[in-house]
Amino acid sequence: MGVAPTRRVAVPARKGSGAWATAPGETSPRPQAMLFTLWGDYVVHRGGEIWVGSLIRIAAEFGLSELALRSVLSRMTRAGWLESTRHSNRSYYRLARRGRAVIEEGTSRIFGPRRQAWDRQWHIVTYSIPETQRELRDQFRKRLSYMGFGPLSAGAWITPHELRSEVRELARELGADGNVDQFRGWYLSADDGPALAARVWPLGRIAQSYRAFIRRWREVVAEVSGSLADPRAFVLRFWLIHEYQRFFLEDPDLPPELVPPDWPGDRAAELFQVLHDHLAPGANRFLDAVFEPRPRVGSAHFSGRPRR
Questions:
Q1: For residues 153 and 158, what is the distance between their CA atoms, to the nearest angstrom?
Q2: Angle, alpha carbons 65-69-74 (nearest 5°)
Q3: Which of 30, 62, 163, 239 reaches 20 to 30 Å from 7, CA-CA?
Q4: Is residue 144 part of a domain?
Q5: What is the pLDDT of residues 26-42, one digit of tens each?
Q6: What's 189's domain CATH number?
């Protein structure tokens, strides 16, 4: 599943339905975020490569024009997120290495939260990256945040999870090996672990976001329990994933000992999984109807769809 920073959005309502409120100034996903979500939940499970005509058809469900889609595909290719190939007179897109890494990390965080037993030790990362390498420093901080680290101080980030291999790989990837140190140990005020967590991460705000997610998505349970057209199932499932994946950017997935009582994250995860699975058959039927992969070498088969 792809994860990219997005503004908060809400599912567009069906005409005549008051179930969904539209976020101010936003009625559709950012195109790049839409494509990451599409690849993460659908395309990677169908060989990883898709015809641009299929993407145009899918984007139309969200009011995204062909011109806008082609523009974002071009930008993502130049940025190293996607790669394009041609077969006959058709263009096909697949994730580049950089894009695959984002999808794999996002899928792991969303569908496989850590939640292993905590040994009450903290993993600490310190770094000293000079001002002359500000861009590198900002990128390192951003990636630490994606992993679930939080800032204890300007140059020290912490997490209760064991992530030394991931941090080592990140430092190597960014060329910051000599600027990063790692430690693991106990917080001497052990009974104040929840207070430390509340200081490092905005747990109150995250809990409010989870509760808002639960309220909004409980409103569609009645709709999805009845007959639902396949395109509607696809759109609803897309928005479900699109909204839920932002918790990958916000929630450090702390162990139960460190979050407030009655933490709503577990209820949100359960609701997400139930709706995600329930909407899957119709959403997949819609996607399969418009999806066209790149033909295999030597294959002369093409569908009857117009060439693009």
A1: 9
A2: 150
A3: 163
A4: yes
A5: 456 678 888 988 998 89
A6: 3.30.70.240
Residue 300 has pLDDT above 70, yes or no: no
Residue 137 placed within a domain = yes
In a domain, 191, yes or no: yes
Structural domain range at position 173: 116-199
Distance of CA 68 to the CA centre of its chain: 22
Q: What's the domain count of the chain?
A: 1
Output the 3-class SS for 203-225: HHHHHHHHHHHHHHHHCCHHHHH
Give domain status of residue 170, yes or no: yes
